[in-house]
Amino acid sequence: MAQKSINIDNKKFDISYDLVNPSLKNDFVVLHGWGSNKEIMKQAFSPYLKDFRHIYIDMPGFGKSSNDYVLTTSDYAKIVDAFLKELNSNKKIIAGHSFGGKVATLINPDNLVLLSTAGILEEKPLDVKLKIKFSKILNALGLKGITKAFRSKDVNQMSESMYSTFKNVVDEDFTNSFKSYKKNGMIFWGEEDKATTLPSGEKIHSLIQNSSFNSYKGDHYFFLKHANDISQKIENGII
């Protein structure tokens, strides 16, 4: 593991990262999803794509990269892009899982790999809608502290800055961002994914004009079982 400091908009970020095949020139950059970290992505893909330098990054606020600021997805893209410039990365391939897929899309690499990516708005279950509505009422009444009781366990463990960041990014409509990507897209999805459902993947495929689409048995982390096949398809599909 290594660490590098990046300064963006008068904010300092200490980014934790790992390199695999560090002497190679063409890069395979991998971005994790919300609440995840580089170790999960490294576990999946480090045995494959042996002709590439792998760059696994803990984005700010995750893994071993801290964050004290309220950020947007665009901020994350700026931070990761600046970090990659520090490593002299050619950004040949950038892969992103879930939230990381949105960040990867904004960086606009030559080859974009999306793994059950977020960014398509889906209908929320009724119980979630009711919690959101009730929380808004309590906030309007000046009872913001009570709303913490309605947060999920994972959300409740976030710092206030990361919770505010989460609220910034969780319900973004990335339709136009996907539609604007004009390079080479490769989309992979879990058929039993309940976090970002299969129809969302199919919609992203329809939005990215030059893209392929493959689905696999599995949930939101389907790639852990199918990384070998996904890697082979990436190797065969890059430009």
Automatic annotation (TrEMBL):
GO terms for cellular component: membrane. This is Alpha/beta hydrolase. The keyword Heme does not apply. Pfam families: Abhydrolase_1 (PF00561). The keyword Hydrolase applies. PANTHER family: AB HYDROLASE SUPERFAMILY PROTEIN YCLE, MONOACYLGLYCEROL LIPASE. Keywords: Hydrolase. It comes from Arcobacter arenosus. One of its GO terms (molecular function) is hydrolase activity. Residues 28-105 form the AB hydrolase-1 domain. InterPro entries: AB_hydrolase_1, AB_hydrolase_fold, AB_hydrolase_sf.
